[in-house]
Write a structure and sequence with these properties.
This protein is of the alpha+beta class and 219 residues long. The protein contains eight helices and four strands. It is elongated and about 90 Å long.
Length: 219
C-alpha cells in the first residue's frame, strides 16, 4: 500500500499549522502551549485521513479475492509500461492464463473452495514471476501477466515454470488444477493492449483445444 495520501495530508497540516504559529508569534510575541500541542492532534487526524485515501486507492487497484492487481490497474498502467519499453527499445510479453477446469471445481467443491483456488493460483503466479512483472486477475478464472521480454527461450522457461508450479499447487491442495497459457509479444504482434490480449487469448484457446485433442486421442 502506498503512503502518498498520508504523506500529503501530514505535509499539508504541518505547513498550515506551522504558518499559523509563525503568524501569531510575530503578532503576539509568543506561542501558547495549547497551540504547540495541536501538532500531535493534527498529525493523528491527518494520518487517519491520508490512510483512508491510501486504502481507497489500494483497493481500487486490487482484486478482492486474489489480492492481485485488477483490470483497472492494468489499463491505467499500460501506457507507462509501453512508454518505458519504447524508451529502452525493449519488448514486452503478455500472458493470458485460464484455469481449464474451474467450472468443475466450483460445481464439485463449491464456490468458497473455488475462490480459495483462485487466490492460491494468484499467489503462485505472483511468486513465480519477477517483482517488476505485473500479475493481475483479468476476470473470472482468467489471469494476466505483463513482463519484459528478452528472448524466446526465456519466455519458454517462464511458461514451463508456471506449468510446473501449477502442477505442484494441484498436488499441494489435492485439487486437480490445469491451466492453459497463451502469449503475445509487444510490439511484434501489436502495440495495443487489448489487441495483444486478444492474440494471447487466441493462443491460449489453441493450447486448450490441443489438450482436449490429446486427451481424446488417448481414450
Amino acid at each position: 500500500m502506498r503512503y502518498s495520501g498520508r504523506i500529503f495530508a501530514i505535509s499539508i497540516i504541518f505547513f498550515f499549522h506551522t504558518a499559523y504559529l509563525i503568524y501569531y508569534f510575530y503578532r503576539d510575541g509568543h506561542v501558547d502551549i495549547v497551540d504547540l500541542l495541536g501538532y500531535p492532534l493534527f498529525f493523528c487526524i491527518a494520518y487517519w485521513a491520508g490512510l483512508q485515501f491510501d486504502k481507497a486507492t489500494f483497493y481500487s487497484e486490487k482484486d478482492m479475492i486474489t489480492n492481485l492487481y485488477n483490470r483497472r490497474f492494468v489499463i491505467n498502467t499500460y501506457e507507462k509500461i509501453m512508454s518505458l519499453a519504447e524508451r529502452t527499445n525493449s519488448k514486452l510479453f503478455v500472458l493470458v492464463i485460464d484455469c481449464d477446469n474451474f467450472k468443475h471445481i466450483n460445481d464439485f467443491y463449491g464456490h468458497h473452495k473455488g475462490d480459495l483456488v483462485l487466490a492460491m493460483i494468484g499467489e503462485t503466479l505472483a511468486g513465480s514471476m519477477r517483482k517488476s512483472d505485473i500479475v493481475a486477475r483479468w476476470g473470472g478464472d482468467e489471469f494476466l501477466v505483463i513482463g519484459h521480454y528478452k528472448e524466446e527461450s526465456g519466455l519458454q522457461t517462464v511458461l514451463q515454470r508456471l506449468d510446473d508450479d501449477m502442477k505442484n499447487l494441484s498436488k499441494q491442495i489435492n485439487i486437480p488444477i490445469q491451466v492453459s497459457i497463451g502469449s503475445a509479444i509487444y510490439p511484434d504482434h501489436n502495440k495495443n493492449l487489448f489487441e495483444l490480449i486478444k492474440s494471447a487469448d487466441q493462443n491460449m484457446y489453441e493450447c486448450k483445444e490441443a489438450k482436449k485433442r490429446f486427451v481424446n486421442s488417448r481414450i
